[in-house]
Amino acid sequence: MEGHQRNLFLYERFNARVVGVSVDDVTTLKYWAKSLDLTFPLLSNVTGFLGPAFGVGPSPEVKGFPVFSRRTVIIDRKGIIRYAKDGSPDFKDILLFLKKMNKEGGTP
Amino acid sequence: MRRHIGVLLCLAWAAMMISACATPETPQKPYRLSQQGTVVWNDEFEFKPPPAEWKIIQVEVGGEFGFGFLRVDPGPFPSQSMFVYDEEPFGCSTQLGERGGEFFKRYLWSTTMILDMQILEKKNVQLLGGEGLAIVAEGKDPVRKEKVKSEVVFGKRGDRVVAFYLTQWRPVDGTYDPSAFEIFDRFWGSFKFVKKSFYQTLVEDP
């Protein structure tokens, strides 16, 4: 998330907005956002209902606790998922994709 | 037909022999020495290298830093000095002063030690052709009886903040070695960017 915050001005340049989604509760996310100086919105998805919509499920590595896998998704203004990658965000890849999308007029 | 099969077998045998004779590729070093005695790292950075007792360290992916140098110092554990160049130091701000504050919130968290870092000195410096900020700090863990002295230098690469930092670890009653700090100062003082960063190219290229 800190990496996204660092790149926020570049995302804005490519007409993109960032939203973080986590299964943590609102209080935890508020504390977390404050400690990392995050200025973009974080959504609390405690029940995990948003996960399947973006192809994200509980991590197989953590048993008995609803820890979700990490996935980066880029959605265009029509609501179509244009980019989805698992694991830690590849910021350079994301920025290149956003630049390309912005140039094509498919503003995210 | 039998002749064709024979030719095919011969070709397969020859291919096997050639592949068996191929020598394994030696991994290429990420750096080269220039005629001026500086090191050019990945054709991107240039700097004066530390003396030979400093060993190169690097993190390829997902690390906290890109590359740096480590020296095992005389004395009991944890006597060692290490300095690195970091393209993505902790924090988000593009203002050096603010970034310094953000950085020290999380600096050395992965040591799992209770260090309670105290800022000893803060001064403006010149580096990378512009303004920089150098912070010297010290942390002590009374439980493990270890301490660390660190110098962190922040500078700019385009719009982004980059950092150099040195950590020198000692037993809590040990003495620090100032020579490592001098070598570190020479390292960041000589540091140059040979080419534009990914981020600079990203925003400049159409």
Describe this structure in words.
The complex is a heterodimer of chains A (108) and B (206). Chain A is built from four helices and four strands. Chain A is α+β, with helices and mostly antiparallel strands. Chain A has a single domain, classed as Glutaredoxin (3-Layer(aba) Sandwich), CATH 3.40.30. Chain A has a two-stranded parallel sheet with strand order 1-2. Chain A is globular and about 45 Å long. Chain B is of the alpha+beta class and 206 residues long. Chain B has a single domain, classed as 3-Layer(aba) Sandwich (Protein Transport Mog1p, Chain A). Helices cover 25% and strands 36% of the residues of chain B. A seven-stranded antiparallel beta sheet of chain B has the order 4-5-6-10-9-8-7, sandwiched between helices. In chain B, a hairpin with a 3-residue loop joins strand 2 and strand 3. The relative contact order of chain B is 0.15. About 2% of the residues of chain B have low confidence.
Q: How many DSSP-defined strands of chain B? A: 11
Helix-strand topology string of chain A: HHEHEEEH
CATH topology of chain A: Glutaredoxin
Percent helix of chain A, as a range, is 25-40%
- Count of structural domains of chain B: 1
**Low-confidence residue ranges of chain A:** none
CATH architectural grouping of chain A: 3-Layer(aba) Sandwich
CATH H-level superfamily title of chain A: Glutaredoxin
Report Rg of chain A: 14 Å
Structural class of chain A: alpha+beta
Q: Roughly how many Å is the radius of gyration of chain B?
A: 23 Å
Low-confidence sequence ranges of chain B: 16-20
Class by alpha and beta content of chain B? alpha+beta
Number of structurally distinct domains of chain A: 1
Q: Please outline the major beta sheet of chain B.
A: 7 strands, antiparallel
**SS summary, helix count of chain B:** 4
The CATH class designation of chain A is: Alpha Beta
Order of helices and strands of chain B: HEEEEEEHEEEEHEH
Percent strand of chain B equals: 35-45%
